[in-house]
Specification:
- The complex is a heterodimer of chains A (355) and B (303).
- Chain A has 355 residues and is an alpha+beta fold.
- Chain A is 24% helix and 33% strand.
- Chain A folds into two domains: 230 residues, 3-Layer(aba) Sandwich (Rossmann fold), CATH 3.40.50.300; 110 residues, Nucleic acid-binding proteins (OB fold (Dihydrolipoamide Acetyltransferase, E2P)).
- In chain A, β17 and β18 form a beta hairpin.
- Chain B has 303 residues and is mainly alpha-helical.
- In chain B, α2 packs across α13 and α9 packs antiparallel against α10.
- The longest helix of chain B has 37 residues.
- In chain B, 30% of the residues are buried.
- Classes of the chains: A alpha+beta (355), B mainly alpha (303).
């Protein structure tokens, strides 16, 4: 087991595209570290650079104490799980699992032992004599995970391993992976574009955008205080409301008159945007205390909650999360008020967190 | 691959009803279809049938007026003449067939050996100006080959490749490499690169990963591509007639054409030689017919 240090990583392809602009990561030993970002943000390239499948243009990668820049993938002592599983189609499950071990030249008895252990961990017993095309997507993914396990690597690299599964199976596998990582205590770097996956799996999350790290933090830190407007829009479903505000009378006030508690240390002379989570707002009866006039545009009835979309004084489409008991009709005139603590505030021009 | 073929066929213009056919209704439509297709088949196949007949007729029956369709004496002499010279020993035609086998086989092998790795590289690696390079490669196939016959002839004369099998092999390979690269790139694109990534993580080098994991999956594609290349080399006529002259080098197409043009033409021999010439291509095309369709419709249907 080992931590992974990525320092000043930069990857530029011969055709001129820059996949990774500048990435620094410090992944701790035994950590489940998630790299999250939209497609093309450089997360997969970073992962492939760690694996040794891509050679970075500049920058250093250390796994444990070893500088691995010039080591081929096989000598980095890591295992990778791919989005398309990449099980060898001509080999049975058993041989797929044994393959990396045989390639290492381990004695037969040990290969057998390790394959059995991985098969038991991933409950593959009945599948051992099947070829990949006779396995379902979920089964293939479990075989792929088991194939990574048998190596007993210093770190697991996961490249969107659940993307090709249907929603229900994905949730199951998510639990399984998290449980497995906790059990083994092996460092795991997990790449995904799915923020729910990132939030539920990661000990820490790195949000990448355009080849740069926007924010690194625990899921709660990332959720509560997104470091930039990009992170604010990316994490959470429905996403944060970004409301233009100005500082007046020691408070934050939106165009529509909604007042918010101000965080300390606000700069005065800049255009500001407050990031307000849908659950930090409340739809009330018209004219309720501290509320401003608003109008319901639409309501999404999700069963356990209702997402109201409301307009208020020129600010369009503010999303509010309400319990299913509070019901307003579409187009109804209502009140809107802020209930949470001071929201994170961003500078419109730099798009970064200022307070 | 097979899936996309089936889809391509199923979604073809089969349901394309012409207005007149619709007016005639189901039964009238099918009768019309059968009649039209029969007429078409007769028109298309008559030369072939006539060639087969001519190849097994005696010479006086070939020239008989009115033409004899059924009541002629069957003979295999023409086929014997294709392979055996009149005085015994090997005939010039059989030598030409051997040359064709050699030239087509070696040039196809060469194009495959060069083209498949190139296609793999273009598919897998980020190459500077990749699209431009691929376009350039394709552009060599834009012009009709006959355009470059004269320059090639002059160049070949300079370097001494005129009237040599090597010269033909090289020119056919040169025409087949671009084709092989383009067709194989489609097949390589279909094989997920993760196989190679996984193999590299398992301790293989990139080339070993290609050789051991990707190549076996490409074999059907390679077979289809090679058959296309083989058919091109086998059928090629223009370069063969311009660049070769002696019997020892000449391939079958110019050799067969050379049978026509004397004072009397032995049509029986021409027909028999043509049949023998057409047979290998027919067999190959039949063997890989599924992949031929796949190759032709490649990229037409997304997975």
């Amino acid at each position: 087991m080992a931590g992974i240090e990525v320092t000043a990583l930069h990857k530029r392809y011969p055709d001129g595209t820059v996949a990774v602009e500048h990435v620094d990561l410090s992944i701790r030993d035994g950590e489940l570290f998630v790299m999250l970002g939209p497609s093309g943000c450089g997360k997969t390239t970073t992962l492939r650079a760690i694996a040794g499948l891509e050679r970075q243009t500049t920058g250093d990668i250390r796994i444990g104490d070893t500088l691995v820049n010039d080591l081929p993938p096989a000598e980095r002592d890591i295992a990778m799980v791919f989005q398309f599983y990449a099980l060898y189609p001509h080999l049975k499950t058993r041989d797929n699992l044994a393959f990396p071990l045989r390639a290492e030249g381990l004695p037969k008895s040990e290969v057998q032992e390790r394959v059995d252990e991985a098969a038991r961990l991933m409950r593959l017993g009945p599948l051992l004599d099947r070829r990949p095309h006779r396995l379902s997507g979920g089964e293939q993914q479990r075989v792929a995970l088991a194939r990574a396990l048998v190596r007993r690597p210093r770190a697991f690299l996961m490249d969107e391993p659940l993307t090709n599964l249907d929603a229900e199976l994905r949730a199951d596998m998510r639990t399984e992976i998290k449980h497995l990582q906790g059990e083994l205590g092996t460092t795991m770097v997990y790449v995904t574009h799915d923020q729910v996956e990132a939030m539920s799996l990661g000990h820490r999350i790195a949000i990448l955008n355009k080849g740069r790290v926007e924010q690194i933090g625990t899921p709660l830190e990332v959720y509560d205080r997104p470091a930039s407007l990009f992170c604010a829009a990316f994490i959470g479903s429905p996403p944060m409301n970004l409301i233009e505000v100005e500082v007046a009378d020691g408070k934050l006030r939106s165009q529509g008159g909604l007042t918010l508690a101000p965080p300390p240390g606000l700069p005065r002379d800049r255009r500001l945007v407050a990031g307000v989570r849908p659950e930090a707002l409340e739809v009330t009866e018209q004219g309720a205390e501290r509320s401003v006039a608003a109008r319901v545009v639409s309501a999404e009835w999700l069963g356990d909650e209702i997402i109201y979309v409301v307009d208020h004084g020129g600010q369009r489409e503010v999303r509010v999360r309400m319990p299913p008991t509070v019901r307003f009709a579409a187009d109804a005139p209502v009140g809107l008020r802020h209930t949470g603590g001071p929201p994170p505030v961003y500078d419109v021009s730099t798009e970064e967190l200022v307070a | 691959m097979a899936v996309s073929v089936d889809e391509a066929v199923a979604t073809g213009p089969a349901r394309d009803r012409t207005p007149s056919a619709r007016r005639l209704g189901g039964r009238g439509r099918s009768v019309l279809e059968v009649v039209l297709l029969t007429v078409l088949a007769v028109v298309m196949l008559f030369p072939v049938l006539w060639m087969i007949e001519t190849s097994i007729k005696e010479n006086r029956d070939v020239y008989a007026i009115p033409a004899k369709f059924f009541n002629f004496t069957v003979t295999m002499d023409h086929f014997k003449d294709v392979f055996v010279a009149p005085g015994g020993g090997r005939s010039a035609l059989s030598a030409a067939f051997l040359n064709s086998v050699l030239v087509a086989g070696v040039s196809t092998a060469l194009a495959t050996v060069l083209g498949v790795p190139a296609a793999w590289a273009y598919s897998r690696f980020s190459v500077k100006a990749k699209k431009d390079q691929l376009f350039f490669i394709l552009s060599t196939r834009f012009m009709p080959p006959v355009v470059v016959v004269i320059p090639i002839f002059l160049m070949y004369r300079q370097v001494g490749l005129i009237d040599s099998k090597l010269g033909l092999i090289l020119i056919y390979a040169a025409f087949n490499v671009p084709f092989t690269i383009w067709m194989m790139k489609g097949f390589v694109d279909e094989v997920p690169s993760e196989y190679e990534d996984a193999a590299m993580l398992d301790g293989y080098t990139r080339l070993q990963a290609f050789w051991r994991f990707t190549l076996p999956l490409l074999l059907p594609g390679i077979a289809a591509t090679a058959v296309f290349a083989l058919i091109f080399s086998w059928n090629e006529f223009v370069f063969a007639i311009f660049l070769t002259s002696s019997d020892g080098v000449r391939t079958a197409p110019p050799a067969i054409a050379g049978l026509i043009g004397g004072t009397t033409v032995d049509w029986g021999l021409v027909a028999a030689a043509s049949l023998v010439f057409a047979l290998p291509v027919l067999i190959f095309a039949y063997l890989v017919r599924k992949h031929l369709v796949a190759g032709v419709t490649l990229g037409a249907v997304r997975r």
